Amino acid sequence: MSLQENVQEVKITVNDLIYGQVKDLNRRMDRLENRIDTLESRFDKIHCEKVTQKPIETYQKTFSPSLSLTLTSISTEIIAAAVIYSLLR
C-alpha cells in the first residue's frame, strides 16, 4: 500500500472546534482557580504573620503585581467564555 491509500479525510465541524475551545477554557479556569487559591493562602499566611507590622504596605508590596495579573487573566477568560457562549446560542 502506498501512503496515499492510507490517508483518510477527517471532517471537523464548527461545533467540534467550539467544543475544543470550551474544554480549553475550562482547563484555564481551573488553573486560574488554583492560582487564586494559592494567592489566598499566601495572603492569609502573611496576614497572620504580620498583622502588627504595617499591613497595608506589606500587602501592596507582596500582592499588587501578581494580583493585578490574575485579575487581568480572569477578565480575559470571562470575555472569552462570553464569546463562546454567544456562539453556542
Topology:
Elements: H1 3-6, H2 14-49, H3 55-88
Jot down its keywords.
mainly alpha; 89 residues; elongated; 3 helices
Oligomeric description of these chains: single chain
Return Rg in Å. Answer: 22 Å
Low-confidence stretches: none
Order of helices and strands: HHH
* Number of self-contained structural domains: 1
Strand content: under 5%
Question: How many runs of DSSP E, i.e. beta strands?
Answer: 0
User: What's the overall average pLDDT, rounded?
Assistant: 76
Helix % is over 70%
Measured between the Cα atoms of the first and last residue, the distance is 46 Å
Q: Helical stretch count?
A: 3
Largest beta-sheet characterization? none
Structural class of the secondary elements? Answer: mainly alpha
Task: Give an overview of the whole structure.
This protein is mainly alpha-helical and 89 residues long. It has one domain (13-88). Helices cover 83% and strands 0% of the residues. The protein has helices at residues 3-6, 14-49, 55-88. Helix 2 runs antiparallel to helix 3. It starts with a helix and ends with a helix. The mean pLDDT is 76.
In short:
By secondary structure, this protein is mainly alpha-helical. It contains three helices and no strands. α2 packs antiparallel against α3.
